[in-house]
Amino acid sequence: MAKPEEADEVPLDEPATAADDIVVEVTSIKAVTAGREVPGEQSGPALAVSVRITNNSDEPVDTSGANVNLTFGGDERVPGVTVTSEDATVWPGSVPPGDSATAVFVFSKIGVPSGDIRVIVDLLATEPDVVFIGPEP
């Protein structure tokens, strides 16, 4: 089964529906210094992106395969490189009905162009990715 095409882009400061009764939102983006936790990893400026999943459905949402990516440079869409950080967290394996969970993903800003960023949330294999777009803080 092929992944559906990307959904429409949503402003960074607005929630989006990932599937029936499942809401995804970028709750914060902050500048941090990260990296050097892994040999060979560069340290330097980075963005810590917090993404919350709210499950308003009657069934648990499996987040074990969920992922977040980021691109820099507006339409250039230069992929952000994930770096280690004390700020980084992961979602639990699933989000129970009526509950929410937040995870923090950290992306290096070293050598990337300025412009709008895109936060791409790949939550469910059967649904389009959720794409948030807005100015880099």
Kindly describe this structure.
With 137 residues, the protein is mainly β. The chain has one domain (9-135): Immunoglobulin-like, CATH 2.60.40.1240. It contains no helices and 12 strands. A 5-stranded mixed β-sheet has the order 1-12-11-6-7, with no helix packed on it. Strand 11 and strand 12 (130-135) form a beta hairpin.
Ordered list of secondary-structure elements with their pairings:
Elements: E1 9-11, E2 16-19, E3 22-34, E4 44-55, E5 61-62, E6 67-72, E7 78-79, E8 81-82, E9 94-95, E10 100-108, E11 116-122, E12 130-135
CATH class: Mainly Beta
Q: Largest beta sheet: what is the strand line-up? A: 1-12-11-6-7
Mean pLDDT: 90
Structural domains: how many = 1
Q: According to CATH, what is the topology?
A: Immunoglobulin-like
**Residue share in helices?**
under 10%
The dominant shape is globular
**Topology order in helix (H) and strand (E) letters:** EEEEEEEEEEEE
Name the CATH architecture.
Answer: Sandwich
C-alpha Rg, in Å?
Answer: 15 Å
- The total count of strands amounts to 12
Offer a concise description of the structure:
With 137 residues, the chain is mainly β. Helices cover 0% and strands 50% of the residues.
